[in-house]
Design goal:
It is a single chain. By secondary structure, this protein is of the alpha/beta class. It has one domain: Alkaline Phosphatase, subunit A (3-Layer(aba) Sandwich), CATH 3.40.720. It contains eleven helices and 19 strands. The strands form six sheets. It has an eight-stranded mixed β-sheet, with helices on both faces. Strands 1-18-19 form a three-stranded mixed β-sheet, with no helix packed on it. Strands 3-4 form a two-stranded antiparallel sheet. Strand 16 and strand 17 form a beta hairpin. Helix 5 runs antiparallel to helix 6 and helix 9 runs parallel beside helix 10. It starts with 9 loop residues before the first strand and ends in a 13-residue tail after the last strand.
């Protein structure tokens, strides 16, 4: 058997399924089994075992001037209508939209100097998810997301008795977040729907009907018998890999502990109310519950009707009245994020779990006015002239907490108009490297073969942001 560790840190890319292998999988496809891979990765640092990260994504981009980086002394054509409030940290101010987070500002750090090189949603998201420096809005990503890469690497050291997936997406970020050439096997275990709905459930986990469990076991056994016919032709050892991934899928389907981890009814009503009895609040509560149970990479996206008419944070004047939209979503956003901050520290998760809340970029500091394209929440009737802010990658904010980091401060700064990051400028690759560092992944050494067999670094030039290293 080939030893799995190599000093080069090079991981060969995914193998291709053979025609007969597909036949061998007949009847078992409902498990959505991962593709077959023969992987090698760096031996992970034991001190980082069990470390987890939660990404809370704000698709479309949040206005930094109207939240975490207010500029109260600039002119009205830049400044929004919101007053500025003090936080628990001297010298740090937010807008009035975030009173709960302001009261907890000693428990997180604001990075005010992110800079993204792309102004479109696809390209901006690709940069934050995979470090792709291309500024074009491609239809699909070229590189795998950092979430899929982390999953890919962690799978190589999987505990055979593990009942939970490493990577879960709860209403995960869009198709901009992709495993690309790693293959769909290394995307998230996907949870969709509204966790606040009394009828909400996660399919294909923790089956309790023993007849179904026995039925699946028989199908698995049949598949193994069929695959025996191809063992002689299995030059790459792919079937052995299949067995491992099939075992993971069966565990997910049949282990009652898995079902319990996803069951929000196990949380007391006061906790559920504290997060907010709405989609966003319950998503973040489920995120906390899952990382506490052992999920190590968790992504969730704050989108949908709670955002306003167009279901995201893309507050162009044609979409939303930007200030009405921010007011519309502020209460639910502030409540849910604050509850997650409180729980990360109160439940002793603050060393193990790192949380980052961000979007792909900010919004233009200068307000513009355009006719609305339709009436709805946070938008006036079609044709009504209303204020908006457009895409702005040159300077924006995100917040970080947990992960053992020093909190109660802000890092970097934008200029007096909020247009450009001018102090401690951080790139998407720095963002990714910081997360890899927390997870114990040596981003400076690991490469993964792409579709053409070329070793591709998981980070090209970025470095972990030292102020965000626990």
């Amino acid at each position: 058997m080939t030893h799995p560790f190599h000093a080069s840190g090079c991981c060969p890319g995914p193998g291709r399924r053979r025609g007969f292998l597909k036949l061998g999988l007949a009847g078992f496809a409902s498990l959505t089994l991962p593709g077959l891979l023969r992987l090698r990765a760096e031996n992970p640092d034991p001190e980082h075992q069990g470390k987890a990260v939660i990404l809370v994504w704000k698709p479309g981009g949040c206005s930094h001037l109207d939240t975490y980086d207010p500029k109260p002394d600039i002119s009205s054509d830049y400044r929004g209508p919101f007053s500025v409030i003090d936080t628990k940290v001297p010298g740090m101010q937010f807008t009035e939209l975030l009173p709960r987070q302001a009261a907890l500002a000693d428990k997180f750090t604001v990075l005010r100097s992110m800079r993204n090189g792309a102004g479109g949603h696809p390209a901006g998201s690709f940069q934050m998810f995979s470090g792709d420096s291309d500024t074009r809005d491609k239809p699909k990503p070229k590189y795998p997301s950092w979430m899929s890469i982390a999953n890919y690497i962690k799978q190589q050291h999987r505990d055979p008795g593990r009942s939970l997936p490493y990577y879960v997406g709860v209403n995960s970020p869009s198709s901009y977040n992709s495993p690309a050439y790693l293959g769909d096997a290394y995307g998230p275990f996907t949870v969709t729907g509204d966790p606040n709905d009394p009828k909400f459930s996660v399919p294909n986990i923790g089956l309790t009907d023993q007849r179904e469990v026995r039925h699946l076991s028989r199908r698995s056994s049949l598949r193994q018998n069929l695959d025996t016919l191809e063992r002689a032709f299995d030059q790459a050892g792919e079937l052995q890999a299949l067995d491992e991934f099939e075992e993971q899928a069966m565990t997910l389907l049949t282990n009652p502990q898995t079902k319990e981890a996803f069951d929000l009814s196990k949380e007391d009503e006061a906790t559920r109310e504290r997060y907010g009895r709405n989609t966003w609040g319950q998503q973040l509560l489920l995120a906390r519950r899952l990382v506490e149970a052992g999920v190590e990479v968790l992504s969730t996206s704050l989108r949908g009707p709670l955002c306003g008419r167009v279901n995201n944070w893309d507050d162009h004047a044609v979409n939303h009245h930007v200030f009405d939209a921010l007011r519309f979503r502020a209460e639910n956003y502030d409540r849910a994020v604050s509850a997650l901050i409180e729980d990360i520290y109160e439940r002793g998760l603050d060393k193990r779990v790192l949380v980052v809340v961000t979007g792909e970029f900010g919004r233009t500091p200068k307000v513009n006015y355009q006719p609305s394209t339709g009436a709805g929440n946070a938008s006036a009737p079609a044709g009504t002239r209303q204020p908006g802010r457009d895409h702005w990658p040159r300077g924006f904010s995100n917040i970080w907490f947990g992960g053992g980091i020093e909190t109660g401060r802000f890092i970097g700064a934008t200029d007096k108009l909020g247009e450009d990051s001018i102090e401690r400028v951080c790139s998407p690759e720095d963002f990714m490297a910081t997360i890899y560092h927390h997870l114990g992944i040596d981003y400076s050494k690991i490469t993964i073969d792409d579709f053409n067999g070329r070793p591709t670094p998981i980070i090209n030039q970025g470095k972990a942001i030292r102020e965000l290293i626990g």
